[in-house]
Amino acid sequence: MEKKLVLNASLHELIYSFELAIANRNINSIPGIISDSFVEYGSSGRIFTKADYMNSVDATEEKYDYEIVDFDIKIIGLNAILATYKSIYKGETVLRSSIWRSKDDVWHLLFHQGTVAADEES
User: Fold this and answer.
1) b/e sequence 78-102, b meaning 16+ C-beta within 10 Å
2) Prediction pTM value
3) pLDDT tens-place values along the chain, 122 residues long
């Protein structure tokens, strides 16, 4: 029998820390959380897979310093949550959403989308 997913401060903090690590290309600190079936619709308009993402992280020495604001999570299924927030980097605000699934008490990122915010959203 599967455990009921409970939305609480520790889950909120855990997913926030995962999102921040991924945004700042610091995923070596959290290995294995990106699902093999991961797909991202980037704010650039490009589509990325896990392999694309892992290759870009490995290929760059650039460090990012994203700020995350208005972070929220909602339960969308028995073992799934939707994370939404705004990221701010070099003056650009991007609206972001991610779908996370828990399997065997480990969270995996399945989907991510970033959309550049309209000026009034910033």
Assistant:
1) ebebbbebbbeeeeebbbbebbbbb
2) 0.83
3) 456 677 778 888 888 888 887 777 776 666 678 889 999 998 889 998 988 877 776 555 566 778 889 999 999 998 999 999 999 988 899 999 999 999 888 889 999 999 999 986 55
